[in-house]
């Protein structure tokens, strides 16, 4: 026994078959978990935390579901990672990437059982992925030159992205919002400039796009409710020092009049500070911290709109959008960049008053106001819209577009199958397996819609043997449909990212032949 014990107590290792078994099982379990959310008829998941307040999230977004899971299995963690990366990189396709990687592993498991070495499988997968990518490259559509067509492409992509989400009922409305917002960005992928504000109440249809900036604050008392040609100073400074604030400070005085003097001196200091601020020639002052009554009075007397306690996100965005900088000292007014906008006014959304800045410096800024029945609906709507915005902003840069609805997978599968027939040796089995894994995606889309997937996918395969075919699965009518007519499109960049990440993740898991789990650290009793 003594010889075998190299690892510490409680540490365990899994070798060879068992290790591979563990990775396959973990990865496939994760795939089965999220695959029901795939496609227009995909279902949502409720995630309930056991922490305080038992928060509930209802979501359809693969990355969100997987992020919230706490998982022990190492292979499953790899899949969760690729879905996160997919979310950060292109925003959509988070479920597809996990499903594809899982299917590749499911196929690999059969091949390993048939005594084919994992390295052979990997090199086969490599060849297949390359071939699949080229197949897509040959079939992409690029309407960069024609602005009208490109805009309709964007609309289609947005509607396709949204159709598997909660917004699918009003997808035209939201696709329009997303496309307008992204078109204003003029090609930058900086989504900071698009602000999303969630206000419960109304229905999802009442959501709208506003081309200014909206700050979720009320305008203070006795201040102008409306300012034209505003010069805005955005600051992060303390405007509440009309009391001695040092913790535990003691001032010994011998009469009440001395206390009054101290207070007077503090007031003077504040008045000086306000004077300095007014010296910038501004008519709107936004502060991140509190503004006490006294300075607020002074601002109101000078006819200046003072907004206090704006949250940090709001302030950074506001500075970015109005072209100002966040100031914290006011001694030299010429060095501070002021923000500008045409009009500041108060607006009502539902019950709440908000401050609306319109005609801002940065033309690309806009705000999307989401309305909806409850917080859960709004959170999910925001996630869905964020996916759509990410995909669109990527597509504006990389204008290549593909059809959707399982069409790209079938195109790739067909090419990959042909490659398998030409390839001698054991690799051909792996390449064939890759094509089966690709076909799994349309199969799952059909399964989720409760259709006969075997029948549909066979029909699709037959259709795809004709040249220049646009067939994909039309989930609404439950048959094979023409994707070009139905206007179901996807961004090439998303598909490419799905294909490459999934292949690499599957490779990584396949390379494993031993899992060593480290022993947990013992906690000392501190009693």
TrEMBL record:
Belongs to the TCP-1 chaperonin family. Keywords: ATP-binding, Chaperone, Cytoplasm, Nucleotide-binding. It is found in: Cytoplasm. Molecular chaperone; assists the folding of proteins upon ATP hydrolysis. Known to play a role, in vitro, in the folding of actin and tubulin. One of its GO terms (molecular function) is ATP hydrolysis activity. GO terms for cellular component: chaperonin-containing T-complex. It comes from Gossypium mustelinum (Cotton). This is CCT-beta. Gene3D superfamilies: GroEL, GroEL-like equatorial domain, TCP-1-like chaperonin intermediate domain. It comes from the Eukaryota. Its main location: cytoplasm.
């Amino acid at each position: 026994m003594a010889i075998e014990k190299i690892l510490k107590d409680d540490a365990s290792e899994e070798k060879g078959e068992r290790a591979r078994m563990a990775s396959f099982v973990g990865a496939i379990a994760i795939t089965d978990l999220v695959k029901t959310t795939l496609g227009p008829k995909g279902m949502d998941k409720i995630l309930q935390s056991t922490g305080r307040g038992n928060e509930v999230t209802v979501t359809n977004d693969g990355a969100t579901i997987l992020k919230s899971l706490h998982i022990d299995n190492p292979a499953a963690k790899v899949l969760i990672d690729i879905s996160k990366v997919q979310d950060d990189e292109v925003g959509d396709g988070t479920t597809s990437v996990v499903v594809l990687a899982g299917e590749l592993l499911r196929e690999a498991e059969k091949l390993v059982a048939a005594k084919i070495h994992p390295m052979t499988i990997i090199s086969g997968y490599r060849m297949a992925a390359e071939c699949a990518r080229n197949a897509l490259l040959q079939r992409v559509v690029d309407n960069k030159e024609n602005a009208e067509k490109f805009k309709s492409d964007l609309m289609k992509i947005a509607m396709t992205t949204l159709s598997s989400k909660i917004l699918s009922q009003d997808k035209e409305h939201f696709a329009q919002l997303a496309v307008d917002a992204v078109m204003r960005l003029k090609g930058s992928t900086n989504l900071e400039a698009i602000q999303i504000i969630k206000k419960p109440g109304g229905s999802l249809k009442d959501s709208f796009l506003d081309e200014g900036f909206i700050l979720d604050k009320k305008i203070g008392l006795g201040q102008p409710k409306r300012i034209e040609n505003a010069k805005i100073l955005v600051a992060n400074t303390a405007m509440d020092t009309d009391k001695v604030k040092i913790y535990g400070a003691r001032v010994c005085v011998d009469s009440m009049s001395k206390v009054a003097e101290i207070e007077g001196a503090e007031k003077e200091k504040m008045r000086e500070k306000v004077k300095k601020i007014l010296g910038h020639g501004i008519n709107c002052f936004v502060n991140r911290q509190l503004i006490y009554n006294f300075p607020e009075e002074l601002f109101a007397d000078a006819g200046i709109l003072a907004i206090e306690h704006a949250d940090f996100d709001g302030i950074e965005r506001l500075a970015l959008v109005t072209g100002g900088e966040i100031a914290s000292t006011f001694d030299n007014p010429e060095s501070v960049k002021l923000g500008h906008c045409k009009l500041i006014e108060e607006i009502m959304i539902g019950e709440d008053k908000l401050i609306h800045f319109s005609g801002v410096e940065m033309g690309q800024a806009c705000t999307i106001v989401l309305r909806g029945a409850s917080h859960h609906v709004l959170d999910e709507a925001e996630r869905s819209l964020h996916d759509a915005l990410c995909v669109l902003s990527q597509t504006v840069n990389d204008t290549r577009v593909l059809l959707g609805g399982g069409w790209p997978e079938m195109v790739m599968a067909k090419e990959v199958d042909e490659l398998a027939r030409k390839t001698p040796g054991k690799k051909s089995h792996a390449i064939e397996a890759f094509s089966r894994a690709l076909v799994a995606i349309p199969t799952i889309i059909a399964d989720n819609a409760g259709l006969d997937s075997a029948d549909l996918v066979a029909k699709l395969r037959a259709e795809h043997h004709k040249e220049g075919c646009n067939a994909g699965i039309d989930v609404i009518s439950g048959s094979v449909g023409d994707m070009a007519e139905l206007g179901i499109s996807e961004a090439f960049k998303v598909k490419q990212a799905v294909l490459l990440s999934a292949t690499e993740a599957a490779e990584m898991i396949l390379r494993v032949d031993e899992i060593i789990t480290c022993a947990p650290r013992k906690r000392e009793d501190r009693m």
